[in-house]
Amino acid sequence: MNNRNLLLLGLILVFVGGLLAWNVQTNGGTIEIKDVRFVGTNGTLMSALLYIPPDVTAENPAPAVLAVHGYINSRETQAGYAIEFARRGFVVLALDQTGHGYSDPPAFGNGFGGPDGLAYLRSLDIVDTDNIGLEGHSMGGWAIGIAAGAFPDGYASINLQGSSTGTFGSPEGTTEFPRNLAVTFSQWDEFAPFMWGGETAPDIVNIEKLQNAFGTEEPVVVGELYGSIEEGTARILYQPATNHPGDHLNSAAIGSAVEWMQMTLDGGSDLDPSDQIWQWNEIGRLIAYIGMIVSMLAFGGLLLKTVYFNSIVHPLPEAMPMTGPMRWLGYVLAAGIPAITFFWTQTSFLNFLMGPENPLLFTAPTPLFAQSITNGVVVWALTNAVITLVLFLIWHFTSNKGATLENYAMPIHWPHIFKSALLAICVLTFGYLLLAAADLVFRIDFRFWVVTAKLMSPLQFRMFLGYLPFFVIFFLITGVALHGQLRLVTSTGDDVPMWRAMLANVGLLVTGIIVLLLIQYIPLIAGSPLPLGEPLLTIVAYQFIPLLTIAAIVMTYFFRKTGTLYTGAFLSALFITWVVVAGQATHFAF
User: Fold this and answer.
1) What's the distance, CA 565 to chain centroid?
2) How many C-beta atoms lie closer than 10 Å to residue 30's C-beta?
3) What is the C-alpha R_g of the chain?
4) Are residues 235 and 226 in contact, defined by beta-carbon separation less than 8 angstroms?
């Protein structure tokens, strides 16, 4: 397929995916979604999406739900819950926690933003303030717990999804507090030890902390209603078959929240909790995401046909990769080292370099490097870049001395490098404008589950510029390895077809992460704790499977189009830095 047709296909995917997502989240255009900003505690600017069902007015107020996402997520992550609440006639405020999305930093400030969100929701004249429910996932559960403590008479019921009481400032649960409590804690939730003190999620039924909240000294029975809804002492435990982030993609988890709000709030419809359409919103956003990537590749290919950028197009250099048994060793090391170093570089090594250990913050944030999780990812990337470079140099000087930088797809020609960087910027800008158009027309970001491409705030763009050089270094060195040392050729020395090279490079970049996750989750699903611990970083690792897949495709495509690694490396660095920074929490109090 030529680039013009490929671009057309990508644009069609963006439009069709965006239209599908819009149709689902607005329930066929009947639900209004507003992007709202309001000022909270200490002048903190807060961000949220407000879902308004049809026929809801000041004269006809409706019950409402405050929905709060977890750590290093954003308001859009709660889309499944918000869509299903709104379909049943509930006004929904899907909040960005402090330091997340478009809410001002720092993360963890002002009760995670929970009290401010509840205060704002109660201020709306379209809301029946006697019928407000609170739903929060993970750290969002702490946010709504603190909100419940701050406004003890300001809500009617609460649903903790993958969360707990009495954690990080949220009040301890008793038979009296919080009012009408539902706990949804999935069977394979990675945070059972941290949230409730059980080794695994099924163990929490025997934990005193949960039993105290349920008013029993016996194991809590899943699905059994304790206490009285009328008296505000009702309690119930749900345990769907999924894991912690899986709560966002599980119909039983979302259904438990819907069921609880229908049971405990007056008003709304009695539409069955199992009647759900949110899945198509996720599919639509994924289609649009894929469309953006396809469009960017095609747009870059078209730019290479122009007079200005055509000068960076060169024949592929002579291949001089590893051969024989050394090649297989290179494959194993390339795939294995990122997985082996993933936890260590972001905990022990990072704390040694930059700060003391903390359960959630791996290093003290600074104005230049304000995102603690991103700091850890950068240390991981740079560590792998150094290891890769050292191994490459050992191989080059012992086994491949005749090769030059041209053979490794990295000729030093500054005008070429400058134009390659400019091309990468043009391509990323095109993709970013597609996202901006989708946000304007369809009120969506591009995402699937926890892998998201969001528009950056001005502050996030500033941080993007600070982190970008580190990812450029990583992808330049990775490009040397993929297109020089480990370049895939036939037995006659010819390059394999592009699709085979893409598959090979994807495998090199993501196989180790996949194996790491299998090592963690096979025992967890079988009933044991995570063998390597690190539940948060295990979840962080998810996003690097699709992100590094995209990077491998981009780098291979532009290597084959230009004969050098520069455009692909620069574009991958720009894209990954954008996605990581826009999707992470900001911890420094600017």
Assistant:
1) 28
2) 12
3) 25
4) yes
Q: What is the pLDDT of residue 348?
A: 65
Tokens, residue 64: 């409402």
What contacts 230, CB < 8 A, 6 or more positions away?
A: none
CA–CA dist 31, 83 (Å, integer): 9
Tokens encoding 375: 């700091």
| Residues 6+ away with beta carbon under 8 Å from 272 | none
Peptide linkage before 367 cis (omega within 30 of 0)? no
State the virtual CA torsion across 81, 82, 86, 88 in degrees, nearest 10: 10
- Interatomic CA distance for residues 223 and 218, integer angstroms: 15
Which of 219, 215, 61, 191 has its CA nearest to residue 126?
61
Cβ atoms within 10 Å, residue 395: 16
Give 192-209 as a 3 state SS string: HHHHCCCCCHHHHHHCHH
| Residues 49 and 82: beta-carbon distance below 8 Å | yes
What distance in Å separates the CA atoms of residue 37 and residue 23, rounded to the nearest whole number? Answer: 24
Alpha-carbon dihedral sign for residues 511, 514, 519, 520:
positive
d(CA 458, CA 45): 14
| Cβ partners under 8 Å of residue 254, min gap 6 | 80, 81, 84, 247, 276, 278
Residue carrying structure tokens 């894991």: 243
Q: Quote the tokens at residue 49.
A: 């999406």
Strand partners, 49: 35, 94
497-504 own/partner pairs: CB under 8 Å, 24+ apart = 498/556, 498/557, 498/560, 501/556, 501/560, 502/552, 502/553, 502/556, 502/557
Kindly report the CA angle at 315 between 310 and 318, in degrees rounded to 5? 155
The greatest distance separating any two alpha carbons of the chain, rounded to the nearest whole angstrom, comes to: 82
Asked whether the predicted pLDDT for residue 372 surpasses 80, the reply is yes
Contacts of 518 (CB under 8 A, 6+ apart): none
pLDDT tens, residue by residue, 68-122: 999 999 999 999 999 999 999 999 999 999 999 999 999 999 999 999 999 999 9
Residue with tokens 């899943």: 222
Residue type, 153: D
Global model pTM greater than 0.90: yes
Examine the pLDDT at 369 and tell me if it is beyond 70. yes
Domain with CATH 3.40.50.1820 in the chain: 28-270
What fold characterizes domain 28-270?
A: Rossmann fold (3.40.50)
Q: State the residue for tokens 């989240």.
A: 25
